[in-house]
Amino acid sequence: MPFSSDGLISRATLNDNVSVSSPASPAAAVPEAVAATAPNSAVSESQRSETLARSAALVSAATMTSRILGLVRDQVLTIKFGTGDQLDAFNVAFRFPGLVRDLFAEGAMSAAFVPTFTRELKRDGKRAGWELGNLVISGLLVATGVISLLAIIFAGPLTHWIAGDYAKVPGKLELTTQLTQVMFPFLTLIAVAVAFMGMLNSLRWFFVPALAPAAFNVASILSVFLIVPFMKPLGLDPMMGLAIGTIIGGAGQLLIQWPALRSEGFRFHFHFAPSDPRFREVIGLMAPGTIGLAAVQVNQLVNMWLATHEGTGAVSYLNIAFRLMFLPIGLFGVSIATAALPMIARHAANDDEKGVRESVSSALRLMLMLNVPATFGLMVLAQPIIEMLVGYGKVAPTDVHGMALALICYAPGLVGYSAVKIASPTFYAMRDSRTPVMVSVLSVTTNIVLNLTLVRFLSYRGLALGTSLAALVNAGLLFWILRGRLHGLDGRRITVALLKILAASVVMAMVAWGLEHELSIWWAGHNALHRVVRVGVAVSGGLGTLLIMAKLLRLEEFERAFGRVLGRFAGRSARA
Q1: Distance in angstroms (rounded) separating the CA atoms of residues 562 and 575
Q2: Quick count: other Cβ atoms within 10 Å of Cβ 86?
Q3: Lower CB count within 10 Å: N or C terminus of the chain?
Q4: HEC letters along 58-107
Q5: pTM to 2 decimal places
Q6: Structural domain for 126, as ranges
Q7: In a domain, 207, yes or no
Q8: What is the pLDDT of residues 123-159, one digit of tens each?
Q9: What is the Cα–Cα distance from 124 to 131, expressed in whole angstroms?
């Protein structure tokens, strides 16, 4: 069975704007250290699991700042503007460049550029790497520049196609069009920023690129207070200030990385040469990598399009709920995949099928241990969590309830999304780009069919539920096919672990819900302190219950994730 690690390198460093860790971090070298001290076949299951969990803990820490700032950004926008027509218009307008960015810039770059750039560095040195970097960045400038120009010119028909029902509200469709025209150049800025991130990761710079998404979120938050107030005196809609902040945030993602890249010797000069074989190689690799990772973004576009027909607030409800659901994915799903994939890539490069199988099994079990309880927690505490985060300002109780229902329907997809981030890149490691592409297309088709059906009965809630079910279908198909390729996936062990995790999660959810419910009766109140305390007590009680249940059920994955591993990580961080 042929294997290759090329497709994995990028996902270990770039997926969802996450990096592994800083070069100085002790755990950053753990996988390499293990490989250096013992053959792959000699690495025990315990060593592999603990190495994975330590690395995943580091990635979670690196991801947390950006994810939380992203949540704060949505929280500030929702509290400031409510969930009315203005925020709906902004969310739809930003979805256009965001979708193209996810598909073309981040997805494509993670599938093609990083492994090619790394190979150039190793084979011919930095000068060859810089040449390739200039080729790719120049190509991105041309391609995204043309796309942005066309989008600005045809923004009217584009927004009318996606959000035609907005024309029923005076000025709403026009505002969406104007915001789209202002924000689309964000695509060019972020494409170059992702290229910078890829080059820095290849040079073992991880911390600085990990800060880039945080720069965007900070700029967006500050624009609410520093730019938006000046819009009305200038005769502009306040949301235009937010659009300007988006452009500034895109530039911030680029500029924060430039000093580190410059210190390595990179100097940009425009060199657009589409006939260059290296450039053509990168472009040739982009298509399957982009399509293979496209299901999430395309499904979100489908959701947005259908939600625009479900009345004011539906787009915003889904947006904030999806952000909350995606927070555990960033902290647990992406981090575990990021930590696991370098090990999977090494085993694949050595044609070590047993090592790949055990690494995938270990990653999947650890992912289930973290994400299944998170799913139950989000479902039973959806209403109090939403109230705590955005139940202020212009957000009405009906809006809070709407967002909570959307979150409940999105939550089951958490496991599916996280599992795909382990399974899909594993196929690329096995030099199989066709399977994830085909499954991704099938997932999008499933999502469309489910959403068109469920939206008739459940309105916007059906869109969230359909997306969750499609994510689970995507993950299930990938692992079913992967099981056949690897002649098994330690199925009995995974099944036993899942049953134990489900039992522990159900008890945890009952305790968390009961604590919050009783506190809301005994200590009624709607100010920030009341809400934070109720949620804090519920979460703490739930985690304590999960700990007890894990001990009673002898869940080894829990012990590795929250016992020795995170304890050692905390100790090492303190000594660093």
Answers
A1: 19
A2: 23
A3: C
A4: HHHHHHHHHHHHHHHHHHHHHHHHCCCHHHHHHHHHHHHHHHHHHHHHHH
A5: 0.70
A6: 85-299
A7: yes
A8: 888 888 899 999 999 998 998 899 999 999 999 998 9
A9: 11
